[in-house]
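Issue 218. Parser rejects a valid record. Input:
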Amino acid sequence: MFQDHHFEKWLINPDRVLIQGILNITPDSFSDGGLYLNPKKAFDKALKLLEDGCDIIDIGGESSRPGSTPISSQEEMDRIIPVLEKIKNEVECLISIDTYKADVASEAIKYGADIVNDITGLSQDPDMIDLVVKNNIPVILMHMQGTPKSMQKNPFYHNVIDEISMFFKQQVKKLDKKDFPLSKIILDPGIGFGKNLQHNLKILKNIDIICNLGCHTLIGTSRKSFIGDLLKCPPEKRLEGTISSNLYAIIRGVKIIRVHDVLEVRKALTILEKILKA
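Output the parser choked on:
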């Protein structure tokens, strides 16, 4: 597992793939909603993620599944802060906070969050860019067409790769103008966020284009609906699709993968890394 100073070195010169383990403290996330609303269960899950080999725990307090409804900042903080505080007090680990609200991110940073993970790519809350710059904290910019409430209602692109790339270039330019280091920016093309099956496949096939934009790249395919569409199975049966899509993305240049099933993915990644280094 990476300690903070090791992560800073990784940001500048990544030499391995990192696994970001998912911890949803929500009642309605698409795969594990309601399982970790209890702070003790959430803490125990965090320990399990670390034991299984994750490098970063990604804590989210608001569901972003298709059709989900936003919640207040206070409700989001009430869910995540007690868990975040306990994790940071008990174990040494990296935590990313999955929020698009500046006040939530600010509070999480006070309690030790190491990374901001914004599903709107810093485009929703006008205070988010200044918050990230002020704290000089690594940030994950995700692309999403529309909002979680409406994003899967007939998403359309003239060219999905070009349009995602253009969005990233615009957002990175805003940070660059404020002298924010490009090495602390991580790009996530947002599989399943305002994309249909063909869009998702096109993104994965051409993920090297995103990897070549000058920042680090993260991919989140874990248990996503495109896997279910292809394999005709529910979220809990999508491990094989999760593993294969992540390994392909890694071969094409992705350096961070966001997953639910850390142990199984870590084992698969170990084999891939041995092959690539042989």
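Fixed in the parser; the record now loads. The two ends are 23 Å apart (CA to CA).
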